[in-house]
Amino acid sequence: MELGQIDALDRTFALGEARKGYRGRVACILPVPGSGRLAPEEMERRLIEMGFIEGVEISVIHEAPFGRDPIAVRVGEATVALRRRDAMAILTE
């Protein structure tokens, strides 16, 4: 990993830590092995299919009342429900 990439990652925020009302853009998808129920490659593919592509605007529009999980995220023109552990793979800025 190059220094520029490390600096860019320092400015990112995991969507799984975001509260209701958060707005940002997808910086990258970075699934961590062993953190979810799917293999990292499968998790990345599914998130991309849901519209989480680099640069797209997102906002957290709803949190579940107990435990704030799952969350509803506006991705472009679509609304997607995600578990917070899956949203941890989405880095935003």
From TrEMBL:
Record keywords, A-Z: Iron
| Annotated SMART domains | FeoA
**Keyword Iron assigned:** yes
Quote the Pfam families the UniProt record gives: FeoA (PF04023)
Q: Which residues form a coiled coil?
A: none
Which residues belong to any copy of the Ferrous iron transporter FeoA-like domain?
13-93
Protein name as it appears in the record: FeoA family protein
